[in-house]
Amino acid sequence: MTDTARFPAEWEPQSAILIAWPHAGTDWADRLGEVEDTYIALVEAITRFQPVVICVADDDVECYAQARLASNRIDMARVRFVGAAYDDTWLRDSGPITLRDASHFRLLDFRFTGWGGKFEAGRDDALVGHLHAAGLFNDSEVRAIDFALEGGAIETDGAGTLLTTWQCLHERHPGLSRQALTEKLSTWLAQDRVLWLDHGYLEGDDTDAHIDTLARFAAPDAIVFQACDDAADSHYVELQAMADELAALRTRDGAPYRLFPLPWAKPVIDDGRRLAASYANFLIVNGAVLMPAYGDEADASAAAVLAQAFPGREIVQVPCRPLIWQNGSLHCITMQLPKGLV
User: Fold this and answer.
1) Are 142 and 118 in contact (CB under 8 A)?
2) Closest by alpha carbon to 259, among 202, 228, 215?
3) Is residue 3 part of a domain?
4) Signal peptide location in the record (predicted)?
5) Total structural domains in the chain?
6) What is the pTM of this model?
7) Residue 186: which H helix or E strand, with range?
8) Can 332 be counted among the known catalytic residues?
9) Conformation bin of residue 282: beta by default, left when phi > 0, alpha when psi is -120 to 50
10) Cα–Cα dist 256/81, whole Å
11) Rounded to an integer, what distance in angstroms lies between the CA atom of residue 191 and that of residue 235?
């Protein structure tokens, strides 16, 4: 690899989306049927536009997943299975963060600690090395970095600007200053600007305010973010403060960002616990944006906002209400693999 390595934006051309199939040995066991339906809908949506690589825990899981997908008329020519051990299916945080130069890829393998030790994560932490050893990736090297960082905690515009939240990075590394964290992220991720948000949270989120639940780049000069217009809601003050922070940010050229506020879904309560239903947790694929839908009347409004933010891309709603039971959504269970990597 050379020093010209670059961190591509999610909207750049992709070779595939990486996911892991839920099974009875994961935390999805109690609601496996509902979650499988979401995964089937997700794979159907992805394969309309590009291939999908599905991690499976063993041969039985692969056979079962293949049968479920084929029976739902999925284009199986665009589905590839790869055997791998995993604790759970949140591949945004355990999968590879990929940098590239003209002809090679650098797979950054940061420590995955189960969001600061909240959950067992030993097999997830080894996933990148396992997939690389299995021959999944082309023209690539793995760079192991002994530093806790999840893919959902960072957003890049593909042109050297990173967006993240102070709450998450400070929670993982309380002994490091903002300047020290900025320098480390800039070096490892080939960025020359790091923009920090000090506000924004979602009840039911155990990631300590991952940026991909709050604010996302739609272009180098545009940010889509989760807004809250209900003054009686517990999120109102924090998300309003976050909106003010975003309005104060400037692009590399010194201009304000074009901002696209997403609507606020009605509270989703499960056994007295509020779940984190964020529309900001969308996934960009080749030619489309896959949007988490929650069976809420705001789903259609969120799709309209994303259509404005991503002109020329089809907006596809994927039913994700079962996912938020485990405190994540669509973007959290996926990782894009840049064009040429597989």
Assistant:
1) no
2) 215
3) no
4) none
5) 1
6) 0.97
7) helix 178-189
8) yes
9) beta
10) 43
11) 31
In a domain, 9, yes or no: no
What does the DSSP assignment read for 257-320? PEEEEEP-PPPEEETTEEE---TT--EEETTEEEEEE-SSTHHHHHHHHHHHHSTTSEEEEEE-
Distance, CA of 176 to CA of 258 (rounded, Å)? 32
Q: What string of pLDDT tens digits covers the 342 residues of the chain?
A: 346 899 999 999 999 999 999 999 999 999 999 999 999 999 999 999 999 999 999 999 999 999 999 999 999 999 999 999 999 999 999 999 999 988 899 999 999 999 998 988 899 999 999 999 999 999 999 999 999 999 999 999 999 999 999 999 999 999 999 999 999 999 999 999 999 999 999 998 989 999 999 999 999 999 999 999 999 999 999 999 999 999 999 999 999 999 999 999 999 998 889 998 999 999 999 999 999 999 999 999 999 999 999 999 999 999 999 999 999 999 999 999 999 999
The answer to whether the beta carbons of residues 34 and 28 sit under 8 Å apart is no
Cα distance between residue 266 and residue 233, in whole Å: 10
Task: State the CATH number of the domain containing residue 166.
Answer: 3.75.10.10
Range of the domain at 43: 14-338
251 domain-assigned: yes
Query: Which run of H or E residues covers position 188?
Result: helix 178-189
Domain annotation covers residue 1: no
Backbone angles phi, psi at 134, to 5 degrees: -75, -5
Please report, as a single letter, which amino acid is at residue 50.
Q
Closest CA to 338 of 3, 1, 12: 12
Say which of 168, 228, 320, 332 is annotated catalytic.
Answer: 332
